[in-house]
Amino acid sequence: MPVNEPIRTLCEGIYNAWKLLSNPNAILLMVVEKNSQNQFDQRAIEYGLEELSEGKMIIIRLTFVECADRLILDEKTFNLLLGDKTVGIVYFRTGYLPEDYASEVAWNARLLMERSTAIKCPWIGLQMANTKKIQQVLSCSGILEKYLTSSNDLENVRSTFTSLWGLERDDDETQEIIKDAIQNPQKYVLKPQLEGGGGNYFDKEITEKLSSFTFEMRASHILMQRIRPLIVKNCLIRPFDDDNSKKLQKCS
Asked: Which residues form the Glutathione synthase substrate-binding domain (predicted)?
């Protein structure tokens, strides 16, 4: 197995971006939740960056509300300013769920940062590309051809796709796939328009959701053919169990 060192890799990427700014006074702004449950790995990244930069990189943690209150965009240079310092990199550790934008204040803060010359990690285009709708649209006929010209590359990429359907239309084809999903939910996964893999619906949840969704709610989801992985029997060892007979259990 290859060695996986995400903290080191991320630190090196951010540090190299910071060096390319050619401004040793440029700030790294880490946008965080008000009450963060991920402080341990965030701190590990901070310590890694401090080590790589030999203590020269200034790292500031702010929430969206604090960003709206303290950041200024220079409308001539589009530099992002925090006091008398330029923000060189914005590293988002929040902003991936609708509830992260609790008010227009948060949305305005995100827009301010996106309009700036600061390097965004990730920038809004990359974040949007990781959502479910983009996944579904890329599977449509003629879309991949806009980005790939090699027939071999097209075939290889398409071989990784399963069937995907958008739900924002009201035509016969969409109604047929919705009807089949309600009647045979075990064949599908219903996915909300989010980044990452959370919030998916399976089995009877699909029937319940598609039967009760408004048109707007339905349009914010996609349907995907459910992937059935190979089931392999294995053993699971449970620690701290006084009953030795339960330590070795079969699982699939």
From this structure: 27-129
Q: What is the dihedral of CA 38, 40, 46, 52, to 10 degrees?
A: -130
Sign of CA dihedral 21, 25, 31, 35: positive
Number of CB atoms found within 10 A of residue 67's CB: 23
Q: DSSP secondary structure string, 42-92?
A: HHHHHHHHHHHTTT--EEEEE-HHHHHHHEEE-TTT--EEETTEEEEEEEE
Task: Tell me what pLDDT residue 245 has.
Answer: 52
Q: Residue 210: pLDDT above 90?
A: yes
Structure pTM?
0.79
Q: Are 99 and 67 in contact (CB under 8 A)?
A: no
66 touches 30 (CB < 8 A): no
Give the pLDDT score at 244.
52
Instruction: Give the Cα separation of 190 and 165 in Å (integer).
Output: 10
Domain chopping of the chain, boundaries:
6-128, 132-225
Locus of tokens 């983009």:
134
Q: Are 216 and 153 in contact (CB under 8 A)?
A: no
Q: What is the pLDDT of residue 130?
A: 86
Distance CA 158, CA 129 (A): 17
3.30.360.10, 3.30.1490.50, 3.30.830.10, 3.40.50.1000: CATH of 132-225? 3.30.1490.50
Closest C-alpha to 47, from 22, 90, 15, 25: 15
Strands (E), the chain: 27-31, 58-62, 71-73, 80-82, 85-92, 119-121, 164-166, 188-192, 221-225, 234-237, 248-251
